[in-house]
């Protein structure tokens, strides 16, 4: 078999996962780190306005919501038990404080985790992120 007849395997450039995850956590484009990743609260932009990286390939779906529930539940449930067993506050006070705490933590984490999930998919060439860009 001659070298010309071998199938051509293009080596995809390596994308660093951790820097991409940090950019996604900050809700920035995983490619350039300067353009906004989200339009609104949770809507991912089709392309980065700075580097024109296509972002419409993402398949975040329910992943960020599951991760948010996992993190908020694992932080707030033991804290709730500790506060209840230690100080025995009134039920309405306990509900108000922890209800607002869960709501605030959820609203904070959800867009950041969505950005991190999209950035992870971009860094690992998942769901079409490895295709050649047509504008280059």
TrEMBL record:
Give the keywords, sorted. Answer: Membrane, Transmembrane, Transmembrane helix
Transmembrane portions of the chain: 65-84, 91-110
UniProt-listed InterPro entries: DUF983
Question: What is this protein's name?
Answer: Uncharacterized conserved protein, DUF983 family
| One Pfam short name | DUF983
